[in-house]
Automatic annotation (TrEMBL):
<dbReference type="InterPro" id="IPR001387">
    <property type="entry name" value="Cro/C1-type_HTH"/>
</dbReference>
<protein>
    <submittedName>
        <fullName>Transcriptional regulator with XRE-family HTH domain</fullName>
    </submittedName>
</protein>
<feature type="domain" description="HTH cro/C1-type">
    <location>
        <begin position="8"/>
        <end position="62"/>
    </location>
</feature>
<dbReference type="InterPro" id="IPR010982">
    <property type="entry name" value="Lambda_DNA-bd_dom_sf"/>
</dbReference>
<dbReference type="Pfam" id="PF01381">
    <property type="entry name" value="HTH_3"/>
</dbReference>
<dbReference type="GO" id="GO:0003677">
    <property type="term" value="F:DNA binding"/>
</dbReference>
Length: 113
């Protein structure tokens, strides 16, 4: 995902943190995080969410999406958030796996263009 590393590094610098500090706060080995910053590898969804939480940055922004979300998408996100609060641990694992698959498919389609 081209540009991901630059967005990660830019946000870390805004917070006054080094790559090592972000990796530590996210519970990652520094070399693993460095691979994301240099766009050598892409994080899985769970790791991406941890990094976003540490950097206090929306996932969409990290992925390079516009900050504005169309109204219908915002409503869908609200519905999804509400449904997630009602799921048990096993169901949440299933949802996470499905979401990771969707993100991988979307990323593959973006790379193909």
């Amino acid at each position: 995902m081209k540009g991901l590393g630059e967005r990660l590094r830019t946000r870390a610098r805004q917070l006054g943190w080094s790559d090592s500090e972000v990796a530590r706060r996210a519970g990652l080995v520094q070399t693993r995080y460095a691979n994301y910053v240099i766009d050598k590898h892409e994080p899985d969804l769970t790791t991406l969410l941890r990094i976003c939480a540490v950097l206090e940055m929306p996932v969409g922004e990290v992925l390079g999406q516009s900050a504005s979300v169309p109204r219908d998408e915002a409503e869908l996100r609200t519905r999804i958030d509400a449904a997630l609060t009602l799921l048990d641990g096993d169901s949440l694992k299933t949802v996470a796996t499905v979401l990771e698959g969707l993100v991988a498919r979307q990323n593959a389609a973006l790379r193909a263009t």
